[in-house]
Automatic annotation (TrEMBL):
InterPro entries with a match to the protein in the record: AAA+_ATPase, AAA_lid_NorR, CheY-like_superfamily, Homeodomain-like_sf, HTH_Fis, P-loop_NTPase, Sig_transdc_resp-reg_receiver, Sigma_54_int
Protein's name according to its UniProt entry: Stage 0 sporulation protein A homolog
Keyword annotations from UniProtKB, A to Z: ATP-binding, DNA-binding, Nucleotide-binding, Phosphoprotein, Transcription, Transcription regulation
SUPFAM superfamilies: CheY-like (SSF52172), Homeodomain-like (SSF46689), P-loop containing nucleoside triphosphate hydrolases (SSF52540)
Gene3D superfamilies, A to Z: 1.10.8.60, 3.40.50.2300, Homeodomain-like, P-loop containing nucleotide triphosphate hydrolases
Example GO biological process: regulation of DNA-templated transcription
Sample GO molecular function, one term: ATP binding
Organism of provenance: Desulfosporosinus orientis (strain ATCC 19365 / DSM 765 / NCIMB 8382 / VKM B-1628 / Singapore I)
Statement: the UniProt record of this protein carries the keyword NAD: no
PTM sites of type 4-aspartylphosphate: D55
Length: 485
């Protein structure tokens, strides 16, 4: 049974000694003891417990208050209240606040105690099995990999709940966090799953092309429109349409989209007959659309229609626990039948877990594929990782003791704040001069990176470009044109 540590909170030394023995020696489970509510609170904020046994009468607090606090911090932790004869009524009351059960002190009937403990342990185990099965299904059926403790779990649960409803859903997240994958997940869990799912990138096309892609066009509507063409609103009828990078849609397109969302009607470009389509619209964005509304770049009424449900996908650096399962998944995906095995060394995994992943899961997938090509035998060590992963400058995030991820001192954000402070401290700010200085600094940084990559690859421009995730033409341009010094 995989149970995290069990917490005993009681000021009676004999009770604590008994439970220490009971759980460690008889049940073979890890146990920790706190003699006050204060100590238990502290421990609870730092550790994950599956089970807590709490005395109703503590020197500094009462068990019910502590129970409520624990449930607020970790609703998954089961709590058993320990009570004397005089407080049984309060113990029953505790069950209304989520306690699993209560046990009477002193423990005269060990059989009864054993029965309650076995019951709660079984319950915890069945919850874990349920979650594990859910996660397995999500991976097998939808290709989405997450760990048991991932913040993605709640998000996907919500996504599945609202899948069957025709509510506007806005999926937000940095590039590569899985927004399209989440949209497909919603579609595949909906009654529309046997109809098309179409994703269209609103930032990749010019305004007129996007309009024609969305709504279609009539023959002769513009030069080159040699025949009538259906748009995705028609093609995706009864299905789902993902408007990706919706924040990049022009004001004119935003207005047209609002009209379709409000009336369900649209016109092909050059058309005069209104058309109807039963499409479920999902939108995705890696920009903050609320800020875009404030900056008057995005229509508030459209945002209001789109984000009835808002799914915020956390960046990979905020879900470090997902990195290892994702690595294993990508390794498996890359292995051909003839290949036996491939594993990262512990050191390599630690580097991967400490990197800030600006390109998120897409970047991780590329790094794993690259390592598998470069590996000798089955082991993949640091040498199989791109050099930029090994540079200290990339460690913009640090893990605190409690597992939270925070900005480290050398993160770009903190660096920018320092820079800004120095500029604003001057008596007079000459903005053109500031812009020139920042551009020069940018150029210096890019130049240094390119020269280092060329040095690493013995001046091989193709290899250097690959290393930097750009094409050789861009590398030549950046080296020769843009950053002549
Ligand atoms: N949890 C996950 N498990 C497995 N693969 C994932 C997961 N999340 C994302 N991916 C993979 O990472 C890649 C990027 O995902 P996706 O295209 O959905 O991201 P996105 O947020 O829509 O990116 P962009 O904003 O750049 O369009 C895809 O190949 C996708 O299959």
């Amino acid at each position: 049974m995989s149970i995290a540590e069990i917490l005993i909170v009681d000021d009676e030394v004999e009770v604590c000694t008994f439970f220490n023995y009971y759980f460690q020696e008889i049940k073979q489970l890890p146990v920790h003891v706190d003699y006050s509510g204060e100590l238990a609170r502290k421990d609870f904020q730092q550790k994950k417990y599956d089970l807590a046994l709490i005395d109703l009468k503590l020197p500094d607090t009462d068990g019910i208050t502590l129970l409520k606090e624990i449930k607020a911090l970790n609703p998954n932790c089961e709590v058993i209240i320990m009570t004397g004869y005089s407080t049984v009524k309060s113990a029953v009351e505790a069950m209304k606040f989520g306690a699993f059960d209560y046990i009477d002190k002193p423990f005269n009937d060990l059989g009864e105690l054993d029965e309650i403990i076995d019951r709660v342990l079984q319950f915890i185990q069945s919850k874990q099995t349920y979650v594990q099965n859910e996660i397995k299904t999500i991976t097998t059926n939808f290709g989405i990999v997450i760990s048991e403790n991932s913040p993605m779990k709640e998000i996907l649960l919500l996504a599945r709940k609202i899948a069957s409803k025709k509510l506007g859903v806005l999926i937000e997240g940095e590039t590569g966090t899985g927004k399209e994958l989440a949209a497909r997940y919603i579609h595949n869990n909906s009654p529309r799953s046997s109809h098309p799912f179409i994703a269209i990138n609103c930032g990749a096309l010019t305004e007129s092309l996007l309009e024609s892609e969305l709504f279609g066009h009539e023959k002769g509507a513009f030069t080159g429109a040699i025949s009538r063409r259906r748009g995705v609103f028609e093609i995706a009828n009864y299905g789902t349409l993902l408007l990706d990078e919706i924040g990049d849609a022009s004001p004119a397109i935003q207005l047209k989209l609002l009209r379709v969302l409000e009336t369900g009607e649209f016109y092909r470009v050059g058309g005069e007959t209104p058309l109807k389509s039963d499409v479920r619209i999902l939108a995705a964005s890696n920009k903050n659309l609320r800020q875009a509304v404030k900056d008057r770049l995005f229509r508030e009424d459209l945002l209001y229609r789109l984000d009835v449900v808002d799914l915020k996908l956390p960046p990979l650096r905020k879900r470090v626990m997902d990195i290892e399962p994702l690595i294993n998944y990508f390794i498996e995906k890359n292995l051909s039948d003839k290949q036996t095995q491939a594993v990262f060394t512990k050191e390599a995994i630690s580097i991967l877990q400490n990197y800030s992943w600006p390109g998120n899961i897409r970047e991780l997938s590329n790094v794993v594929s690259r390592a598998m090509v470069l590996r000798v035998g089955s082991k993949m060590d640091e040498k199989c990782l791109p050099p930029y992963l090994l540079a200290r400058e990339e460690k913009h995030f640090e893990k605190e003791n409690n597992g939270n991820v925070v900005l480290s001192e050398d993160s770009p954000q903190i660096w920018t704040q320092h820079r800004l402070k120095t500029i604003l401290e001057q008596d007079e700010v000459n903005l053109p001069e500031v812009i020139r200085m920042l551009e020069q600094q940018n150029n210096d940084i890019i130049h240094t990176i390119i020269m280092k990559a060329l040095e690493t690859t013995n001046n091989n421009q193709n290899k250097a470009a690959e290393l930097l995730h750009i094409n050789p033409r861009t590398l030549r341009y950046l080296k020769n044109e843009k950053i002549k010094r």
